[in-house]
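User: My collaborator and I are trying to settle a disagreement about how two of our proteins should look. Neither of us wants to argue from intuition anymore, so we agreed to look at predicted structures for both before our next call. Could you fold the first one, then the second, and keep them clearly separated?

Assistant: That sounds like a sensible way to settle it. I'll keep them separate. The first protein:
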Amino acid sequence: MKVTFYGTRGSTPVPEQEFVRVGGNTPCILFTSDTGRVGILDAGTGIRKLGNDLLARSHEQYDNIFIALSHTHWDHIQGFPFFQPAYDPKRHFIVTIPEKDRKGKNLESIFSMQMQSEYFPVPVEKMGAYMMFWAPNITRYITRAGVDVVASKHNHPGGAYGYRFEEAGKVLVYCTDVEHGDRIDPNVVALSKNADLLIHDAQYTPEELKEKKGWGHSSWEQAVEVAEQAGAKRLALFHHDPDHTDSFLFKMEEECQRRFPAAFLSREGMEIEL
């Protein structure tokens, strides 16, 4: 399986020059299975370029392209109206997040709301592609490509889910927008057990985290603790704070690597083969 980062920034896009090396788009990741089928993790502003790249490569998968959401906060869905493949009537997308223990509006209405005429000229039902909004009351399933998927709820305002993807003995874990509290969440550690690649929220420094309790995010130190406890092979620091410039983040990466050498900053355009 292969992972390609299209958006690694948290909270809001930052297009300024001092953010360009790590990237300013909000969360979006392309997941490619060993069979060549693709899926998408979150639909932040990075999904715009992801869609353009799929079209440029004349990607021929038209059915059951899943978009798995960690949650539906603005920075994780705001790129969806600019996702060009969703305007192709030949394509079929499954937009999904577990409904188990989740409260609030149904998934389709959330996407419809952000594309109301007050906010966007094209409503979701006029985009063209077939859209299935799937909010299952299960947290484990197998995709058509044969990838075993496990979802696990964690602490974040409004709720959020982490995902574990396993294929041919390789494990990818995606765990963003998580606040651990006074101790590391054991459910996050269990989800991340022996991951070949753990993508984990690392929005704050340990010092910043003290002032951001209740904001729903982790420090890089907590991301390392999860990786250590879970025995993860590699750790991608993710959901970078919009006020953290490239130079700030590279210093943070160095500090993190002194404790966990297999840690690195997730960067837009980065591809990782598992």
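The second protein, kept apart from the first:
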Amino acid sequence: MSDIATPTGSMRGRIGRGAAWTAGGQMIRTGTSIAQVLVLSHMLRPSDFGVVAMCAPILAFITLFQDLGLSQAAIQKEKITHDDVNFLFWVNVGVCLLLALVLVGSSPLVAAFYGDQRVMALMAAMSSTVFLAGLTAQHSAMLGRKMQFNRLAAIGSAGGVIGLVVSIGAALCDWSYWALFAGTFATSVSTTIGTWLASEWRPSRPKSNANAKELLRFGAGLTGFNLVNFFARNLDSILIGRFWGSNELGYYDRANRLLLFPMSQVMNPMSQVMVPALSRMTDHPSRYRNAFLKSLSAVLLVILPGVAFATATADYLIPLLLGPQWTETAEIFRALGFASLLQSVNNPAGWLFVSQGRTGEFLRWGIAGSVLVVLGFVIGLKFGAVGMAIAYAIAEYIKTPLLWMYIGRKGPVRTNDVLTSIGPFLLAAHGALLAAWLTHKYVVAGTLVNLIISAMACVAAYLILVLVFRNSRRLVLELLAIARSQLGFAPAT
């Protein structure tokens, strides 16, 4: 049987347009989320947000299992048939129905734990959004596989706007915490309808599939990694809250979110574009390698100077952004900033694991990396939030070479490719951080002027150091040529 969802046209053009569409959609969704928080904060009581927050950890854990990695399985598979997608669709629907029932069944227990009966009805209602996710998983996967990111961006943006309007309208009607649920439910319904209308694929009756074992094995590896990673990424907050209290945890949480939010706005759209694109190039190692290295280089050009600057000037930057009451967050932020430099390089390794179908190895790496991080947390715990942040940064520096040696053992992208092509960007970021820190420390000026001069020193040092290395200089020039071509100024070389 033939492939039912193969992208057409230039892959370079699709990657560029896909990144632009996805980034635009991400910006709109982020804007609506921020607007919802700001507007509803003036319309609802803190206790309304608190009720929703009580349900959030349970819902976040449940959502780890609602897709089972099967969307990525459909995207990554070299050729996908209707029967393959149909099998995955009904598995997604069945699993999400089961998870929704689990949420409903556990809601009385969660309400009893918190001593708040409002939680029971709200959790039961939230189960509907879990079920709706199962109805759209494979339709979204088919749009992603065909690299129709314009449609996905439009659906996500429309869903975000509709959710904002509905939640505000419900708050005006004094629906209290139900206004927050109403916006979420409206987004889920509109996204489901939009995805079905945009996708040409339609399910048929459930039946067995010859490729079931292969597809489920792929999804199991990816789900296992997400579960292990979820545990490791939340353990630090749990330990700090348990042993050091809410005040210390508040400082740590703000620092963590300030670093993760900007990075996620770049990494998430790129991941949605790169996994389908790389999956279509696994039979062309040279194209695959070039696409990965150039795309990652573009990401690092955007992310690393900003992370380096923020890390170097945290003692001025944090009070300026958050207020003087958050001054103690600065040292935590600085330690996490060093970890973030490495994460910018390491997170895209997931593109390679998934697009090459190596989810079993992805899971094994997730377990090994998480053990290392947890050991760091145990050691750093006695030094409070700052100690935990430093331990996390040290773990990232230990993990980085191990990760790229592990993933570079096989596949189109070898360890040496990353070392020679991406290594200079990472070295330049550390040099830029040092330049910004020295400027910040020794330039006597007001806060704003000091930050501006430090930022200029950081960017200048970063660009100079990147251009010193032949491989990174060549990649930057190629990226500039591609950008000029996309803008219609000159043909790409």
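Some points you might bring to the call about the second protein. The two ends are 38 Å apart (CA to CA). The chain has two domains: 11-210, 222-486.
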